[in-house]
């Protein structure tokens, strides 16, 4: 998978990702890890089929990731890592996004 573009909504913090896929993917998972500075703050693994309509066919597409930095998290610097893997656990893509959450 080649990541073509990542858009971050300033209002919601949700991510929209455009990609190009070189071959068909039947299933897999997405691991999301958020750190606050260097402190781990959030981790979750989600089935690829909860984000995508599986199987993913070869070609271009888009997907969205909801904001894991909940409103109750402290203001500060966060780093979000999302790793997409197929059902053989081979890495399809890795996304790193740095976010600054400001106080309300």
Describe this protein with a few key phrases.
104 residues, mainly beta, transport
Folded structure, characterized:
By secondary structure, the chain is mostly beta strands. Helix content is 4%, strand content 59%. The chain contains 1 helix and 7 strands, in the order E-E-E-E-H-E-E-E. The strands form 2 sheets. A 4-stranded antiparallel β-sheet has the order 4-3-6-7. Strands 1-2-5 form a 3-stranded antiparallel β-sheet, with no helix packed on it. Strand 3 (28-36) and strand 4 form a beta hairpin. The radius of gyration is 14 Å and the shape is globular. The termini are far apart. The model has no long low-confidence stretch (mean pLDDT 85).
What's the number of extended β-strand segments? 7
Helix content: under 10%
Gyration radius over CA: 14 Å
**Helix and strand composition category:** mainly beta
For the biggest sheet, the summary is: 4 strands, antiparallel
H/I helix tally = 1
Bulk shape? globular
Strand content: over 45%
The overall pLDDT, averaged over residues, is: 85
Low-pLDDT residue spans: none
Helix-strand string: EEEEHEEE
Distance separating the two termini: 37 Å
Give the strand line-up of the largest sheet.
Answer: 4-3-6-7
GO biological process, one term: sterol transport
Family: Belongs to the NPC2 family.
InterPro entries: Ig_E-set, ML_dom, NPC2-like
Subunit structure: Monomer.
SSE inventory with pairings:
Elements (H helix, E strand, L loop, with lengths): L1 E7 L6 E7 L6 E9 L2 E9 H4 L7 E7 L10 E11 L4 E11 L3
Antiparallel strand pairs: 1-2, 2-5, 3-4, 3-6, 6-7
